[in-house]
Amino acid sequence: MAEAEKDQFEDEETEEDAPLERRNKIFSKELRCMMYGFGDDRNPYTESVDILEDLVIDYISEMTKKAMEVGRPGRISVEDIIFLIRKDPKKYSRVKELLMMSEELRKARKAFDEIKYATATK
Question: Which CATH architecture has domain 25-73?
Answer without folding.
Answer: Orthogonal Bundle (1.10)
